[in-house]
Amino acid sequence: MTKMERGLLIILTGNGKGKTTSALGQSMRAAGNGMPVCFIQFIKGSWKYGEIEAMKRFSDIIDFRVMGRGFTWKSDDLEKDRAVAAEAWEYAQTAMNSGRYRLVVLDEFTYVINYGMVDRDAVMSAIEHRPHGVHLVITGRDAPEELINVADLVTEMREVKHHYKKGIKAMRGIEF
Amino acid sequence: MTKMERGLLIILTGNGKGKTTSALGQSMRAAGNGMPVCFIQFIKGSWKYGEIEAMKRFSDIIDFRVMGRGFTWKSDDLEKDRAVAAEAWEYAQTAMNSGRYRLVVLDEFTYVINYGMVDRDAVMSAIEHRPHGVHLVITGRDAPEELINVADLVTEMREVKHHYKKGIKAMRGIEF
To answer: How many CA atoms lie within 13 A of A139 on its CB side?
Structure first.
């Protein structure tokens, strides 16, 4: 790679909707600029039909990888959870350091950190020492303070109102 | 159209980043489900190269329209501002009522309402009486209370930290 500026660290957190969809939009924006993107999903099953189909239109420039396990990372097999998390994180590090991508998205990664599935200090070090020119987007609730401290851009998606609370069920094309 | 449920009204507001990118991601998700989308940009110039290029990949299912004028809607020609806003809003209503779209996005529409460029009561009435099966996403800062009251889902994007404040300039593929 040619000499580049330090990439940005962007955190999308909070209890509201729009974290993953925003990361998706961010990936499209980068791809539209001809920047190769690696989008890694740490929570298996959190992505639904709609976005997976849409991503196929970017298969030449966005690598989309589903890693990890189900939503809670709290199964009855902690050993296996850790092994899966370690493998996913290994993949993420390889992507960050490969020189192939200008944007790497770690979708729902905060859960993996918060459940203690990866070593927090090792994660912080890898993020801070990634090659120049690699922007990083991390999504998920409850972003750890250490991440926020070193981030360039942090947006909290705050839920003001949600129709689930009115008893309306999830709708195709909107939630999935 | 066949008999359908009432579509959702989704508001993406707040002073943080991620409102338009989230609406973009939402459009991709709908398109991935085979739902035709009409994405109307009310602030001319707010969309940059990256997303416009990316949108071209969805030209079979997402109609993307740039309406309106520059960012402030406060030019030295109020008459012209109102005329342009009226035309854009007319287009939006036609899209909502056409039966062609399952999702209509009014990007940065709150500014048009807040600057008094369109009749607020007429807007509220058109939104509430749109045909069933049409989801509506409205983005922009300072969403009016009336909109929030009738919305199904409201997310506030709250700026926690922004690198502009550290003196880092906007970067290609991230901000544009």
So the answer is: 27
